[in-house]
Amino acid sequence: MAYIPSNTLAFPGSSWQMCHVHFIRDVMKKVPNKRWKEISERLKEHLTSVEQLQIFIEELEQ
C-alpha cells in the first residue's frame, strides 16, 4: 500500500484519502431515492472546500 505514507504527508491527521468518485458513491448509497439528484449535485458542488462541505453536512443533519 504505497498510498498510505504519501497520504499522511499530504493530509496530516488523515489515515486515508478517498477519491471523489468513490466518496460520492459511498455517500449516495445512504441517500433516499427521492433526494438522490439534489444531494448528489450539492455534494459535487461542495467537494472543492472543506468548509463548504462541513456546512452542507450540518444542513443535512438538521
Describe the protein:
- This protein is mainly alpha-helical and 62 residues long.
- The protein has one domain (18-61).
- It is built from 4 helices and no strands.
Which class do the helix and strand fractions yield? mainly alpha
Radius of gyration: 14 Å
Number of helices: 4
Strand residue content: under 5%
Mean of residue pLDDT? 79
Helix content: 55-70%
How many structural domains does the protein architecture include? 1
Stretches with pLDDT under 50, minimum 5 residues: none
Q: Tally of extended strands? A: 0
Order of helices and strands: HHHH
Q: What distance lies between the first and last C-alpha atoms, to the nearest angstrom?
A: 38 Å
Q: Sheet with the most strands?
A: none
C-alpha geometry = globular
